[in-house]
Amino acid sequence: MISAKDLKNPHVVRRDLLASLVVFLVALPLCVGVAVASGVPAELGLVTGIVGGLVVGLLPGSKLQVSGPAAGLTVLVFEAVKEFGLSTLGPIVLAAGLLQVVLGVARFGRWFRAISVSVVQGMLAGIGLIIVLGQVYAMADLEQPGSGLAKLAGLPGLAIDIVTNQEALTAFGLGAGTIAVLLLWPKLPARARIVPAPLAAVALATAVASLAGLRPAVADVNGLLNAIDLPGGAEFSRLADVAVIGTVLAFALIASAESLFSAAAIDRMHDGPRTDYDKELVAQGVGNTICGALGALPMTAVIVRSAANVQAGATTALSRVAHGLWLLLFAALLPAAIGIIPLAALAGVLVHAGCKLVPAKEFGPLWREHRGEAILLAITAIAIVVTNLFEGVVLGLLLAVVKSAWETSHVQLTTHELTGGRVVVTLTGNATFLRLPRILEQLEKLPQDQPIELDLTGLRHLDHACRVALENWARRHNNAEIEPVTIRQ
Fold first, then answer.
1. CA 121 vs CA 27, 32, 128, 319, 404: distances in Å
2. How far is CA 317 from CA 63, 141, 258, in A?
3. Is residue 301 within 8 Å of residue 67, measured between CB atoms?
4. Where located (predicted)?
5. DSSP secondary structure of 276-331
6. What is residue 2's predicted lDDT score, i.e. its pLDDT?
7. What angle (nearest 5°) sits at the alpha carbon of residue 363, between those of residues 360 and 368?
């Protein structure tokens, strides 16, 4: 929320308004690009961005995180629209938003504070790879395959199409030129870099296409009000469909995960107030509820826009609210400007954004210092590409829990033979099911013709699986003529 104290400080207001312009110029091509990639009118991406700024920006949770349409939901939205129709998208998003509000009120969001950093980085890397693999087809004005594996398998065919098809080659050239501008822009003098790189790249690609007389594919533009289609009773009745309910759950969980993982990443980029995860989850739910009522795209907190906000020097929520106002003014006053932007240029912006989410430079040092964390990051990212965002993240979380349990479940087994032939076996540390095979392997090597006492008093933790397995071992280990193994706990 924006405090009156912040608004009375002209230095803060000036700095945050300047930051909001940067975020607006970054968000504009991304909002349009995500909408087009999702198979919906470009204006609906702007509607979601506007709601993310003007509504979610005013709600408590995170001061610096910016919300809007996200590339991570592109595939899910595309499939939902394809299966249920664009008119059903609104009720699905609205129901998902209400579910997010319930989860936030139930304090579900706070559990995301325990998320492994490697899982967060893996999630971002997976999203980045999905964006790159999908939008490289859009750069050539060609239809992209549905799954991640199909996109990978189709790359050789894509290369052949680009080389042999003049229209595809022209479009791909515009997209590649857009990426080149994005890469070279940070190296220009500071005065030139006043204009954000995404806006400059898209403007230059549009100008080149226009001056050269090219006719690449562009977005259909109908105006903001014409694009909004308020869902009615017939559309809401589809929520009783089991398949639709499954999509609602997927939207809610994936949008929540991406938003709260993004919050974890953004909190590491600044020294200001930390995100209240429960309130942020409620805020995202309110935003999605409104987007659903307007028939727009679902929203999440977006790492690219949020990072741009922090890097531009924003310190309050004013910047993210103002960026929503700039989006509204643009959509109301200059809607026709969207219709001249080549889709290949928008795809180039998304490919560049996707590449930045893949932590290629950080992976090498992480591999050398914490190999297990690097493996966790890689598996999470690959799983997201092969399956989907939700399943990939869940797999990463499960592996993180297993890894943590394995590292903490150290157990030592020592053997001492007393006078009279009695053998005392002592276990110390943490005995969990993860160490059970090793424990049983050592115990089964003990003699079966001597009295044995198993001392468990030195264990700090003994889980149920280990307890049952040790009791079963004690009952059957010794020969019939020898007294059974005794357990001291």
1. 22, 26, 10, 26, 17
2. 5, 38, 20
3. yes
4. Membrane
5. -HHHHHHHHHHHHHHHHHTT----EE-HHHHHHHHHTT--STHHHHHHHHHHHHHH
6. 67
7. 150
Report in angstroms the alpha-carbon separations of 236 from 74, 162, 247, 427, 465.
22, 43, 14, 60, 47
User: How confident is the model over 264-282, as pLDDT tens digits?
Assistant: 778 877 777 788 888 999 9
- Tokens, residue 315: 């310190």
Token pair 């540390």 in the structure block, residue: 429
Picking from 68, 62, 66, 72, the residue whose alpha carbon sits closest to that of residue 48 is: 68
Determine the straight-line distance between the first and last CA of the chain, rounded to whole angstroms: 55
The CA angle 251-257-258, to the nearest 5 degrees, is 90
> What is the helix (H) or strand (E) element at residue 102, kind and residue range?
helix 86-105
- 153-175 in b/e form (b: 16+ CB < 10 A) is ebeeebeebbeeeeebebbbbbb
Mean pLDDT over 254-271 rounds to: 80
**Pair of tokens at residue 182:** 């994005």
Hey, what are 375's tokens?
Answer: 């493996």
Distance (Å, whole) CA 65 – CA 98 = 21
> Do residues 380 and 119 lie in contact, with contact meaning Cβ atoms separated by under 8 Å?
yes
Radius of gyration from C-alpha coordinates of the chain? 28
Task: Give the tens place of pLDDT for each residue, 310-351.
Answer: 877 888 888 999 999 999 988 888 777 777 888 888 888 878
